[in-house]
Amino acid sequence: MTTLKPITDYPITEYLFFLSLYPKPPSLKSYKHLFFDLDNTLWDFRANAREAFFGVFTDLNLFAHIPDFELFLATYEKNNEHLWLEYRKGKIKKDTLRSERFVLTFREMGMDDPALIARASDLYIQSAPKKTILFNGVHETLQYLKEKYRLYILTNGFSEIQIQKINLSGLQAIYG
Fold first, then answer.
1. Does residue 157 contact residue 38 with C-beta atoms inside 8 Å?
2. Which of 14, 20, 59, 165 has the fewest CB atoms inside 10 Å of its own CB, making it the most exposed?
């Protein structure tokens, strides 16, 4: 028997295909409204973060200090996820989340230069929301669904960041 991933692990096109695998899929005709999460459903967070961090590493010459870019990304993802969990539980504030994910990651990579870490954090926060990589088929799928349903984006991200992502990746035209 195949073990299925949680539904949130599927990009939009895989999710719609996944629904077709059920013996009796729920009838989408009974729905009038469809809700989609932005990060990791429509907007490819991992690919956009990779691209943004590559720019940060290049601009600040971090490859000379941290040669294992893949390890850096994996460490950042781990710290980011942990701190988002703490934020959602109300244990830390937004500013702590934004700064500590970088401090922890750079320290784990053997760097403890507060000015450099702050500069890297600022560059990443400025550049990441400007990245526009969506999962394959997002625009086509949403365009098709827009004709039949009211579409909504839900997100737990910070509004000033999420609005940039939506606008720059062209999703505002579908949801606008």
1. yes
2. 20
Q: What is the mean pLDDT of the chain?
A: 87
Q: Which residues pair with 168 in a beta bridge?
A: none
Q: Which two tokens stand for residue 72?
A: 């850096």
The model's pTM is 0.79
Find all residues with CB under 8 Å of 101, minimum gap 6, and list them. Answer: 76, 79, 80, 83
The candidate with the shortest Cα–Cα distance to 151, out of 58, 31, 51, is 31
Q: Give the chain's domains with CATH numbers.
A: 7-42+134-175 (3.40.50.1000), 45-130 (1.10.150.240)
> Number of helices and strands (H, E) in the chain?
8, 2
DSSP 33: E
Average pLDDT for residues 15-24, to the nearest whole number? 52
Q: How far apart are CA 166 and CA 157, in angstroms?
A: 12
Cα–Cα distance measured from residue 130 to residue 119, given in angstroms and rounded to the nearest whole number: 17
Q: pLDDT tier at 173 (50, 70, 90 boundaries)? A: confident
DSSP SS3 for 148: coil
- Among left, alpha and beta (phi > 0; psi -120 to 50; other), residue 49 is alpha
